[in-house]
Each structure stands twice: as C-alpha cells, then as structure tokens.
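Example record for the data management plan.
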Amino acid sequence: MLYVKGDVFVKGARVGRMYIIDEERFMKFGLFFVASILLLVLFVLLAVNTVYADKVPENTDSASTPVFSRKELSYINSFEKVEIVVSKGDTAWDIQERLAPKADTRKALYYVAKLNNRVIGDIFEGEKLIFLKEKQKGAN
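Corresponding structural encoding:
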C-alpha cells in the first residue's frame, strides 16, 4: 500500500506528491522480480541444452572419445570405416583418395582425424588408422 507523505511545492506551485512505499509490497515485488529472472535463466539454459542435445558420443568407452553431431554421423556412416596399416611412403591424403576417390578428400580427412582422435599431418609406417572407404553399391 502506498502512503501519501505530502504535496511537493516548487516556488509556490504544487508539482506533485511524495510517496512512501510499503515495505511488504516492495518485498513482494522484489521476490516476483527475482523469481522472474531465475525463470528466464532456466529457460535460456534449457534452450541451450536443446540446441546441443544432438551432440552424441559414438561410444562412451573413454573420456577422449570424439563427439559427433547427427549431421557428422550421417556423413561418416555414408562410408565404410576400415582400419589401414600405413606402409612406407604412404600419406593420409593418398590413402583416403585411394579409398574414396569420389569424396571430398579434405572433408573426409577431417573426419578421419576426428575418428582417430589425432592430427593426421604426419603418419608413420606400421601405424594403424581408421579411414573412410566408399561403400560398394548394394551394401548398407
């Protein structure tokens, strides 16, 4: 409830009234305001969680397992994953181009690096790496 304290005069002219705010009403408004802010924060957190909910790990065996979005998984699953033992003189570019000549080699190598959880710049003879191979016609 608001209580009128009195009229305010400036040079003899009444310009308004001065009010005192009831503390109980002020506290109710304050609690409503704080609750509104908390609900807004909760809504934002839920919205952010919904945006990133499509990030699912391929498997949960280790903490360093790469995480792929549904779009990335769709691309990766359009290929067959094969484990290749690197031979002397091989480069990741040559191996990937040989396995999937119709695919964008840069994009495929990006996912090869992510699948192997490492940078694919330097590969060494005898190393076992997962590459993406084009699926044969009629194969799932």
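Summary line stored alongside the record: The mean pLDDT is 79.
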